[in-house]
Amino acid sequence: MRLKQGMHKLAVICGLLAISSVIVSGCSGNGNKPGNQAVATEPAARQYYIFDTVVNIKLYDDAKAEEHLDHIDTMLKTLDKELSRTLEGSQLYKVNEEAGKQPVEVSENTVAVVKRSIAYAEDSGGLFDPTVGGLVDLWNIGNGGEHVPEPEDLQRELNLVGYKDIVLDEAKRTVFLKRPGMVLDLGGIGKGYAADEVARYLREEGVKSALVDLGGSSIIVIGSKPNGNSWNIGLQDPDSSRGISVGTIRLNDHVIDTSGIYERYFIEDGVMYHHILDPRTGAPAQNDLKSVTILADNAMDADALSTFVYVMGLEDGLQYMENLGDDTEAMFITADDKIYVTSGLKDSFQVSSAQYTLVE
Ligand code: ADP
Ligand code: MG
Asked: Which residues bind Mg(2+) (predicted)?
């Protein structure tokens, strides 16, 4: 599979923002200064919860905003019942219950996501593997009381990883996991799929100006700001406890997605264990990266890429992203506060924090 690629417009990073998460700000100076033509109306905003993630959506200058927000609520609830691994009775839940027993009939959404997850697995040489669910449960990262698993438990779950044992029958619309105990986990791309669906709906409805924010680490901007300017998206410091922003980037119609090790982790004996797993070892990927940020024209690619490019590490990840072509870009932040960007970002990227050094 080739990852879908498209147009994007990146402009210069503007000044430092003291923020701890990805937010939108008017740092271009065109926005809300007294005397300036400020943004015409307050956005219609709503918060949702899907796949254990808080989603914030803002629609600007839209007469039918409340209607759209209601519709999105229904859409997200449906997607949760299809793709959530933890929601009892969801389609994915049933697929996992029936692992090694029988195929489970699923919806078109689920077929589409499983199909793409297999394609990403093939594309990444297995570094993206949606059958890591058993390992995700074993490590249980971000849920409290975590500890490094016993080697035999790790080996048992590692043996159950293998995307080649997912049987997807598109004609019958069924998913089957060949081996008992296998656990399908679409956590690496489900949010991206949901965000793309929301964006597609809003565009079809003619919405010209909107923001979709999934848990702060994934943002879709639709159109431009109501005043016609680009959106200014803050790039979060992977270690948000320091409250520093790397800078902001100006975007129209685009997706920015970050996978970072500071989102969910625990520390044992001085070692940091985070939630991005290396399917080769069964353990959190060990490298010197704090975060990988992907800029793409769709959220599912950005979501999957940020996860498996993280597993690839700096050198292989950079090369992989360069080979994808110049429409999908990446930014890597290393443990020693160096920033590496793909060639499409080189001219437009300026680091705005003294903490970080851009490697040319
Ligand atoms: P977040 O969901 O916090 O934004 P990511 O998008 O990076 O983070 O996705 C991480 C999630 O993806 C994990 O919580 C897990 O469910 C799943 N995952 C972890 N490692 C892998 C992997 N190597 N391949 C596929 N999915 C993975
Ligand atoms: Mg991701």
From this structure: 188, 303, 307
| Whether residue 124 has its Cβ less than 6 Å from ligand 1 | no
Token pair of 254 as six digits: 């685009």
Class of domain 208-358: alpha beta
Higher pLDDT, 19 or 27: 27
Residue 348 Cα distances to 29, 245, 251, 288, 329, angstroms: 18, 17, 12, 25, 12
Give the number of the ligand closest to the Cα of residue 121. 1
pTM value is 0.88
Ligand 1 atom nearest to 259, measured from its CA: 7
Residue given tokens 């849920």 in the structure block: 143
Examine the pLDDT at 224 and tell me if it is beyond 50. yes
- pLDDT for the residue numbered 156: 98
Task: Give yes or no for a contact between 225 and 231, defined as CB atoms under 8 angstroms apart.
Answer: yes
- Looking at all shown ligands, the one closest to residue 277's CA atom is 1
Is the pLDDT assigned to residue 4 strictly greater than 80? no
Q: Is 62 in the pocket of ligand 1 (CB under 6 A)?
A: no
Summarize pLDDT for 109-118 with one digit per residue, the tens. Answer: 999 999 999 9
How many A from CA of 54 to the centre of ligand 2? 15
**Residue (of 181, 322, 190, 241) closest to 19 by Cα position:** 241
Mutation pick for ligand 1 pocket among 275, 290, 310 (CB with most ligand atoms within 8 Å): 275
Q: Could you tell me the residue ranges of all domains in the chain?
A: 208-358
| pLDDT over 90 at 32, yes or no | no
In a 3-state reduction of DSSP, which class is residue 53? strand
